[in-house]
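Section 5.1 Outputs to date
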Amino acid sequence: MASTPKSKTPARTKVRPAGFPTRDQVVDFITTSDQPAGKREIAKAFGLKGQEKIALKALLKDMADEGLIDLGPARAFHKMGGVPKVTVLRIVDVDDTTLIATPERWEAEGQPAPRLRVVERGKRGALTIGDRILARTEEAGKGWVAHPMKKLAKASEELLGVVEQMADGKLWLRPVDKRIRKDTLISDVGTAKPGDLVLAEPHGRPPRISARVTDILGDPFAPRSFSMIAIHKHGIPHVFPDRTEEEAVKASALPLHEDKREDLRHLPIVAIDPVDARDHDDAVWATPDEDEGNVGGYKAIVAIADVSYYVRPGSALDKEARKRGNSVYFPDQVVPMLPHELSSDMCSLRAGQDRAAMACHLTINANGKVTAWRFTRAVIRVVAVLAYEDAQAAIDGTKSNDLLEPALKPLWACWALLRKAREARDPLALDLPERRVVLDEFGKIVSVAVRERLDAHMLIEDYMIAANVAAAKALEAKKAPVMYRVHETPGRDKLVALKEYLATFDIDFALGQVIRPATFNALIRKVGESEEKEQIMTQILRSQTQAYYAPQNMGHFGLALGSYAHFTSPIRRYADLLVHRALVGAYGLDLPAPKDKAIPDRSSLSQEDYENMGRVGEMISGHERRAMEAERETVDRYVAAFLSAHVGEVVKARITGVQNFGFFATVDGLGGDGLVPVSTMGAEHFFYDEAGKALQGVESGDRYTVGQRLELRLAEADPINGSLRFELPDNPAPRGGPMKRDRTRPGVVHRGRPKNIRHIGAKRGKHKR
């Protein structure tokens, strides 16, 4: 039996019994620990060694699956359903003299980040907006409080907002972040003018917080400004250092070494991409297999830009690509992972030009199973770059295309086999709409619409999935390192929430069954084409875990695959670049070293790559989440800008979320959530049905629930922070919110709460039940 470790323990920490802990003891330790409690801390506290540590890992996973604990920031566990006991917070607001903070990392999908009241000790005013703190947290009443333990180094992010002049002549900074609910008085505006988008530093102590403008970004409504807001807010690197740009020019001049590559230039390989694609990193080809042993089968090639040849381990290009993690795609611009000399030129598979490629050769049998694969470095010449719509039109016979017979028909015939295998696998099938913002050449919004889902999209998806699986299995066969794309089975807490939600539709969901993607697909089929289908699919999506990158294989639940790695987009994803390097090393595909000694010799995985796979996986997973949030926020701003011309009109909407303070709704076909506050819904009192995700009137019985379709009046559309506000059309309420813009004096705002909106701060609980 292991002995209790001799270490300095805070006086209030309980003495732990020696030996392997029970579930209750683990929860108790996590709950009362004054420091982040990860696996290492738990093992140390109970004196666990050797095989006991392995058993502890299994126990923690079981407890997470059972909904007892959850994994929070810094790989530390906390009790399920709350904020970690000790965590990093960022101060984002001040309420009177009380500072408000939110968790620096909050990954609970579908739940807003909690706002914690900061309880300062000793000298008041030591903290201010923008500060980061390590804090001990606890529930107090109906909210959370934070007790600062340590002030951390300030993050590089400053306050980002728009300068606005009030009727009294004072200048205020209006934040672009929805989480910051109050404006900040500007003490030093510099040369900025009302209406300018600026970066500013917070100054002073509560309650007298002010802002000093440090950088003027320009007109927030000018072309590209919405994406620049997201870039600055999230700290996305968007300017390449001179050294990186210079290295990109040198790398792009490297010889192809056609004599040492497989020559595929004679094949009618095509790239099929979105009509507005800025780069082309994959192309496909297929033909019937003439091998007698594969009757009815096909041979296919998925050719991917050979980015690892140009971006080598340890180079300036490599370090900058790892820092970015991925390209970020906005409606008005792309922030590429690699400089344009590579991303949109030498590494883009342009039609009619010789390009270096990593070719994945697939053999597919009549049942759609990939029976063999091999990888080569090749030189290709894409015969055409087709938009999805054009390829689909050629197959449907609505538009003629010379490539129909030699290229497209064989691709579709081979895909019919891959689709057969997909149907047998039965991966998660959530066909949710995707918004597309269309801009004209001047950056003005032409339309916001839902992307049409075509067979051409699914065809490319299935070829890419086949190549990604082949890459993972090829590396496993060589016992080489793999950067897996991991998607784990949903945790029990989310499944319980889904069960409660489905029960409101009288749909039974058994928790005791083995959960597979097919389980959710059966639910969707059961719903059929009912009105509730879309919101049920959305709730199923929210029940899923978030995919991430890691060198340990945990499988891909959503795709129903045991091994999966991203291989097909090395121009825009660093994970794919690592997989390419691993393939080069495992299969001896390195080419002669460059003559330019400034460029590293090898293009295969380096020792540093190998040793840091876990840490890099965590980092690029975080970069991916950052990019997704920035892209979503930018689309929301464009949607709000598009709708700003329709304020006052009644629109068709659907409720997407319900809280005790109101409900969120989205305009049909456009997206962009907006709030209908309870305070604007007349004198009616509402209680909040948490399980049913609904608000119900005490006297009228009117019920507002997730998925409900209704008509709402658009009361406000704010392009600066992408927020919308709605009103019930038959329940007139004051418009303009807490600030009204004076149309006769541009840039001038009148502050204050409309007189007929009730204050529901301390009495909000009355509307809950």
